[in-house]
TrEMBL record:
Keywords: ATP-binding, Nucleotide-binding, Transport. Belongs to the ABC transporter superfamily. It comes from Streptomyces dioscori. Residues 303-314 have a biased composition (Polar residues). Residues 2-227 form the ABC transporter domain. It holds the Pfam family ABC_tran. GO terms for molecular function: ATP binding; ATP hydrolysis activity. Residues 343-352, 359-388, 394-406 have a biased composition (Low complexity). This is ABC transporter ATP-binding protein. Residues 303-415 are annotated as: Disordered.
Length: 415
């Protein structure tokens, strides 16, 4: 298990990660999401001992990476697929890594086969495509058959077949009881790969929950209703009936109606009572992408001036407060999708029955008492994980070699 407590990293004036606490458990794929520059890579580097935290700590199986017995054999990581000596053959690159950790050469050929690079094993990696480089990086991460795996954007540059392969690989590694922590900007992929999500924005924890909870608590389910397009009067009649019954009705661009606040059977009954024919009555469940956009939109630092949402953010309803910083654990009420109708007007309410505060909010937690550099009013920590005692690391049956093993000969923070 990976456990971060009050993890904070500053680079001069820049706070890349602030007071981050979470656990990544074995046996499931945990997705690590956040906008560009939100601190994902920095967090991963701290997990791997490549950067020192400014405050707080992060452990793997109860040990910091640098104190982990046989660390290179316990943890495999893909951080930067380009961090390879381009003049070396793929096989030689892996052989060097294997020899440094006492891994037998036959394992090199095994992982080359696993990632599908066996036919180019004798080719120099500088001639590799982006996707081939990713595969080589994944091979390096798998080299020692580690129990803990970190992947930073593993599907970057992979073709559809490669993406599917990575998805299945992550799931099978988790199914074997390993800890799999993977960052990605591909929401559609994360939706089908990850079981659990840790979402950060501007270095702070925004959510720590299952994919299913994340979607249901950060999005609005609604019904799409369509009346015959030839008769606008029917549409108006239905809108009036639904509104009178307490529903909220918004027109969709294609002429359909988006209805919240009423269950589908009630909409059907109301349409029947109003003598309105329906050509469509369908439930709409938000995607992970939609839920993610809603939660993180206030924490996006880099946005195109032609992005429609940049414009949308200007059009606030009268009296509305514009989004500034995401509220940890509550996300950001934005304008990308309609607010969920339930949960007492709290658009990002936490799942029922969960404690409002995370296990790390207690005084004395490293980093927790420090001033928040984002000057956001204090909010309860969102982490939902129950606190757990760090367990001692069990030496894995086979050794592992992270492709991003810390080079302790380099000064700290060298990039
Ligand atoms: N060595 C460094 N020195 C100074 N600033 C840094 C350093 N490393 C990261 N940062 C800054 O810290 C912030 C977080 O960067 P990081 O690379 O961790 O984000 P990220 O979430 O991985 O982004 P992306 O999704 O674009 O890969 C950024 O503002 C970045 O510029």
């Amino acid at each position: 298990m990976i456990e971060a407590v009050g993890l904070t990293k500053r680079y001069g004036d820049k706070t890349a990660v602030y007071n981050l606490s979470f656990q990544v458990r074995p046996g499931s794929v945990t997705g690590f999401l956040g906008p560009n520059g939100s601190g994902k890579s920095t967090t991963m580097r701290m997990i791997l001992g490549l950067d020192n935290p400014s405050a707080g700590q992060v452990t793997i199986g109860g040990y910091s990476y640098r104190k982990l017995p046989n660390a290179p054999r316990q943890v495999g990581a893909l951080l930067d697929a380009k961090a390879v000596h381009g003049g070396r053959h793929a096989r030689n690159h892996l052989l060097c890594l294997a020899q440094l950790s006492g891994i037998p050469a036959r394992r090199v050929d095994e992982v080359l086969g696993v990632v599908g690079l066996q036919d180019v094993a004798k080719k120099r990696s500088k001639g590799f495509s982006l996707g081939m480089g990713q595969r080589l990086g994944i091979a390096a991460a798998l080299l020692g058959d580690p129990q803990v795996l970190l992947f930073d954007e593993p599907v970057n540059g992979l073709d559809p077949e490669g993406i599917l392969w990575v998805r299945n690989l992550m799931k099978s590694l988790a199914a074997e009881g390993r800890t799999v922590f993977v960052s990605s900007h591909l929401m559609s992929e994360m939706a089908v790969t990850a079981d659990h999500l840790i979402v950060i924005g501007r270095g702070q924890l925004l959510a720590d929950m299952s994919v299913r909870d994340f979607i249901s608590h950060n999005s609005a389910d609604f019904a799409r209703v369509r009346t015959p397009g030839t008769d606008p009067a029917q549409r108006e009649k239905l809108t009036a009936a639904l509104t009178e019954a307490g529903g909220q009705v918004l027109p969709e661009q294609d002429g359909a109606l988006r209805v919240t606040g009423l269950p589908l059977p009630r909409i059907s009954d109301l349409a029947h009572d109003a003598d309105v024919r329906l050509w469509e009555l369908s439930p709409h469940q938000a995607s992970l992408e939609e839920a993610y956009m809603r939660m993180t939109q206030g924490a996006v630092d880099y946005r195109s001036t032609t992005d429609q949402r940049a414009g949308l953010q200007q059009q606030l309803p009268p009296g509305a407060v514009p989004p500034q910083m995401p509220v940890p654990g509550q996300g950001q009420p934005g304008w990308y999708a309609p607010p969920p109708p339930q949960q007492g007007g709290q658009p990002f309410a936490m799942p029922q029955g969960q404690p409002p505060a995370g296990p790390y909010g207690a005084p004395g937690v490293p980093g927790a008492g420090e001033p928040n550099p984002y000057a956001q009013p204090a909010q309860p920590a969102p982490a939902q994980s129950a606190p757990a005692q760090p367990a001692p690391v069990q030496p894995s049956a086979a050794p592992a070699q992270p492709s991003a093993a810390p080079d302790l000969t380099k000064p700290e923070d060298a990039r």
